[in-house]
Every structure is written in structure tokens, then in C-alpha cells.
Design brief:
Bound molecules: calcium ion
Distance between the termini: 135 Å
Structural class: alpha+beta
Strand content: 25-35%
Largest sheet: 12 strands, antiparallel
Radius of gyration: 48 Å
């Protein structure tokens, strides 16, 4: 609570204030002479105060202006950045769109190629037997219980009173017993293999993965063994009519039959059933192995005409390409010299002529010899291309255009090594998968560096199976060259493997006979050669003949019956 001052206290305070005022007045009066100085001083002080305030305000203004400028600069920078990034973005988007367009075209092309390759493989023609007879097939053993008539006969027996034997009513329970004695164990039917899906795959020698395959048929009993030639499949599941198996992707390329063996030892075979293609990556190339053609001056044993001229056929189905599409034949190491080739003495002096033939004879031709203006770009490269030609220039035979390439040694004594490819591009080896390359005779090589393994695929027509005479159902696979006996000739049919030592040392043709069993026809066999461990080069020729010595086609890819017997001539 505030205290109220007393009268004495208030009087004293007023006196004190008055005393101060008097003192001040006296003080000011004593300084009267300097009043202007005081006023000027006060004005100076005021000016100083204003000046300080002005400077302060100016600084604040500057700061505000700078902040605004900075903000605008940031905004301008951001706008510029946005504009440039928009330009970049637009450029990138157009680039991406272009790439996407290219990629889409590539994917579309590869998809079409894949479709072309896979579709024929996937067409599982459902056998009429399986679809119509599935129900009758199972019951045949169980549904025909002959005891059934005994059931119908007992009721008829009761109304006939003539059969007075009173024992008949007591026999009424017997019908239930009658079937039991008749349950004789039916002999199980052997498995039947009707189809597989898919029917083909691409192998990858380095892969550890597996391809799933469904086997379709009848009378499968758990757990069967399933094999493709000598390759065992892993069984994942079994029903009466289906088996799911997996096959290793590392399986060798070739045509295969498929065998199912039930636990009771009975087996069923479908052959040929399955085809394995070599892996060519995303673009499907049609390339030959390394081939060899000697100069016309080749010395013994290479003075044989078969060493000096190679004839190769290309077969393009009319459905593969359009008539106007261009085709190219690309050749690896077309010249003779430098890398890849083999100097047989006196330096490289061999000239080789490459000619493509169609329906009107030679379409294009080129001689490549020591005088040919060879640039170093040809050596060991796919850089030589025979001029483009159109599909319609081929010889049309039953829905296929045929082109022939001949490679002839004109002069010199050297071995020209080369590879050939049919392509619809000058710069890459690309072709639809159903185009085929074959010859009736190949001259090739085994060489540890360039070609340690050689695979060729002779086609065995249907007519070679089940013939009467021993010479009628025999494949005569003839080989020549083969100087080093350590090599092995290796033959695989769809059902078995055979091996034959290469014993010929004189460079002449030497036939090896292989009987053709049922199920081994209508498909290519695989003829393989393994190079010796030493770094030697061996030159080999292959030709195949069948019935009455008719020459057979030897393909560069495995295939299953797509040809009629009349085609294989
Ligand atoms: Ca060369
Ligand atoms: Ca020479
Ligand atoms: Ca060459």
C-alpha cells in the first residue's frame, strides 16, 4: 500500500526542485555569453543524429536493394537453368524417342525373327489319337469287366420257377463275389510319346540353366526316366498324360529323339522330337564354319578338284523376305595371305573366284588374288561383300529361292581359309532363321585356334529308314584329308552316338557307313570332329550319300523333317 507523503516532506521536495532550477538558471546565466555556442552545439548534435540516422537508413535501403537484386538474379538464374534444362530435356527426349524408335524397330525385327523361329517349333499338332481317345484309353482294362452279365442273369433266373433248385436264392449274394476272382492284373501298357512342347530351344554351352519341356502322351507312370539321346532330363512332375521335364541349356546343338521309360522298364520313343540350335545372340546369323579352298596349283593330295572348288547353296523361303529385299553374301578373310590362311610354299600366290548364281546364271562375281587391290581391312574380317542382289533373282523352287555360291581356286598353291554368310545387311550378318545353308560336300579344317570343333548336319530323309537291303538304309558319310589319326569323327543320330577313328592318311575319300534305324530319319544327324591337342591344322572333306549313292544335303544348322524326300536331291 503506497504511503502518502507528509506536508513537510512535500514542502522539502518542492524546495529541492526549486533549488535545482535556481542553480540551473544561475549556471545558464553564468554561460550566457556562450549561448549561441550551445545552440550551435545542439544543432550540430541534432545534425549528427540525423546524419547517423540517414546513413543507417541508406544502409538498410542498400541492403534491401541488394537482397532484391540477389533474389532477382537467383530467379533469373533459375529461369535460365530451367530453360536450358528444358532444352536439354527436349533434346534428350527427342534422342530417347529416336532411340526408342530404333530399339522398337530392332525389337520388332528380333521379335519377328524369334517368332519366325519359335512359332514353327511351338506348333504342337495335337495328335487325333490323344484328343478323341483319351477316355477310352484308360478304361480299356478296368471297364470291360466280363462278370457284368452274371448280374443280369441272376434276376432272370429268379422268375423262372422251372429252375426249382431252391439253392438259387441262397446264391444271390454270390454276384458280389463274382467280380473279385476276375481281377486279373492287366499287363500295363507301354508309354506312348506323342509330342513335346516346345519343340526347339537354343543352346548355350556356358549356361547352367535349364529349359522346361512338357512331354505329351499316354500311360506315363511315376516316376519315369526321360532322355534325349544320351542326355538325361530331370523329371519335375508326372500325370498319366503329361510329364514336365527340364533339359540343360548346355546340351549340344542337333536333332534329338525323346525316350520315356516307365519304372517297369517299358519305354516309348518319339523321334525326331526336339531340335537344339546353336546360340547366335539377338541377331540370328547364318554363317558357315571355316572353309578351305586350294589354288588350282595345289600339290598332292590337294590337287583334287574337290579341294579346289566349293559349292554352297542358300535357300530362302518366299515367306521369309519380300521380293524387293536385298541380299548380300559377306565373306570373312576373302583374300589369301596374312592371318587365317595357309601358305603352302613360294609365298602367297593364290587367286580365288567368288561367284553367285541365281535363276539367270551368274549374278555377281569377283576374283581375289595377289593382284587384287587388297587393303588390310580384308584380312581376318567380314569386310568383303558380293554385290547386293534381290530375292527375286534367285531360282524359285517350290516356294523357296535358291542361290548358289561357288568358290574356285584359280591359281597358286595355297589354302584359302574363309567363312561365308548370307545376310540382308552389308555390314552385319543378319538373316531370318528359316533361311538355310547347305552343300553336298564341304571342305573344312580343324585347327586348335580357329576351329577346334567342327559340326555339320547331314539330313537323313525318310526314305532311308526301314529299307530292305543293307545298302539302302545306310548313310555313307565320306571324309577325306584327316591326316592326323588322333582326331575323332563323332556322329550323333537323334537316338544314339557313334564314334569312328579317322584313320585315313593319304588324303583320299574314305567312306564310313552308318546304318539308319527307325526313328533316326527325317532329321539332321550331327557330324562332329574334335581337333588334336597339338597345334596342327587338318583339312577335311565331308560328303554324305544314302540310298543308291544319292548325295545328301549337309546343313550348317540342325533341322527336323521339313523337307519331303523329293526335296533332298
Ligand atoms: Ca588372310
Ligand atoms: Ca603359295
Ligand atoms: Ca582367306
Amino acid at each position: 500500500m503506497a504511503r502518502i507523503p507528509t506536508l513537510e516532506q512535500a514542502t522539502a521536495a518542492i524546495r529541492r526542485v526549486l533549488g535545482w532550477l535556481v542553480t540551473c538558471y544561475e549556471w545558464v546565466r553564468s554561460w550566457r555569453w556562450s549561448l549561441p555556442v550551445v545552440i550551435v552545439g545542439l544543432m550540430l548534435i541534432l545534425m549528427l543524429v540525423f546524419l547517423v540516422l540517414f546513413i543507417q537508413a541508406r544502409e538498410d535501403l542498400d541492403k534491401a536493394v541488394r537482397a532484391k537484386v540477389d533474389t532477382e538474379a537467383t530467379m533469373i538464374g533459375a529461369i535460365e537453368q530451367a530453360e536450358t534444362s528444358e532444352v536439354d530435356c527436349t533434346e534428350k527426349m527427342s534422342t530417347v524417342a529416336a532411340r526408342q524408335g530404333t530399339r522398337t524397330a530392332e525389337l520388332k525385327a528380333s521379335l519377328e525373327a524369334c517368332t519366325a523361329m519359335v512359332e514353327p517349333c511351338l506348333t504342337v499338332s495335337p495328335p487325333a489319337v490323344r484328343l478323341t481317345d483319351t477316355s477310352p484309353l484308360l478304361p480299356t482294362s478296368t471297364v470291360t469287366p466280363t462278370p457284368m452279365p452274371t448280374l443280369t442273369s441272376t434276376p432272370t433266373a429268379s422268375p423262372t420257377p422251372t429252375a426249382t433248385p431252391t439253392s438259387t436264392p441262397t446264391s444271390t449274394p454270390t454276384p458280389t463275389d463274382t467280380p473279385t476272382p476276375r481281377t486279373e492284373t492287366p499287363t500295363p501298357l507301354p508309354p506312348t510319346v506323342l509330342d513335346v512342347a516346345p519343340k526347339c530351344m537354343t543352346c548355350d554351352p556356358n549356361s547352367t540353366e535349364r529349359q522346361a519341356v512338357v512331354v505329351i502322351g499316354d500311360n506315363f507312370v511315376a516316376t519315369p526316366t526321360v532322355s534325349l539321346c544320351n542326355v538325361a532330363a530331370v523329371v519335375l512332375g508326372v500325370t498319366d498324360e503329361f510329364i514336365t521335364v527340364t533339359i540343360p541349356l548346355s546340351i549340344a546343338a542337333g536333332s534329338y529323339g525323346l525316350t520315356v521309360t516307365n519304372p517297369d522298364g517299358q519305354s516309348g520313343v518319339l523321334s525326331p522330337a526336339f531340335i537344339v540350335h546353336e546360340s547366335y545372340g539377338i541377331t540370328i546369323a547364318l554363317e558357315s564354319p571355316y572353309l578351305v579352298t586350294f589354288g588350282a596349283g595345289g600339290t598332292e593330295p590337294y590337287n583334287d578338284r574337290r579341294y579346289q572348288k566349293q559349292e554352297i547353296f542358300f535357300e530362302v523361303p518366299t515367306t521369309s523376305l519380300s521380293n524387293g529385299d536385298s541380299l548380300f553374301i559377306n565373306i570373312l578373310d576373302a583374300e589369301t595371305g596374312g592371318k587365317v590362311d595357309d601358305d603352302q610354299g613360294d609365298g602367297y600366290d593364290t587367286t580365288t573366284r567368288y561367284t553367285v548364281y541365281g535363276k539367270a546364271g551368274a549374278i555377281t562375281s569377283a576374283d581375289i588374288g595377289p593382284g587384287f587391290p587388297i587393303t588390310d581391312s580384308l584380312d581376318d574380317k567380314w569386310n568383303f561383300t558380293l554385290d547386293s542382289f534381290s530375292l527375286a533373282q534367285g531360282e524359285l523352287v517350290e516356294g523357296r529361292y535358291i542361290f548358289t555360291l561357288t568358290v574356285e581356286g584359280l591359281g597358286g598353291n595355297d589354302a584359302n581359309w574363309y567363312r561365308v554368310a548370307l545376310s540382308n545387311s552389308r555390314y552385319t550378318n543378319t538373316i531370318p532363321s528359316d533361311v538355310q545353308m547347305y552343300a553336298y560336300s564341304w571342305v573344312s579344317l580343324v585347327n586348335k585356334t580357329y576351329q577346334p570343333y567342327l559340326y555339320l548336319y547331314p539330313y537323313i530323309p525318310e526314305s532311308l529308314a526301314g529299307a530292305v537291303g543293307p545298302s539302302d538304309n545306310t548313310l555313307w558319310l565320306q571324309s577325306f584329308g584327316c591326316e592326323y589319326a588322333v582326331e575323332y569323327l563323332w556322329i550323333r543320330t537323334p537316338l544314339r552316338e557313334m564314334r569312328a577313328s579317322c584313320l585315313v592318311t593319304d588324303g583320299r575319300f574314305w567312306p564310313t557307313y552308318f546304318p539308319v534305324d527307325e526313328g533316326e530319319e527325317g532329321a539332321t544327324w550331327t557330324a562332329g570332329l574334335i581337333a588334336p591337342a597339338v597345334a596342327k591344322t587338318d583339312y577335311l572333306g565331308f560328303s554324305a550319300a544314302g540310298e543308291r549313292d544319292v548325295p545328301l544335303r549337309i546343313y550348317t544348322r540342325p533341322m527336323i523333317a521339313t523337307l519331303s524326300d523329293t526335296d533332298v536331291r
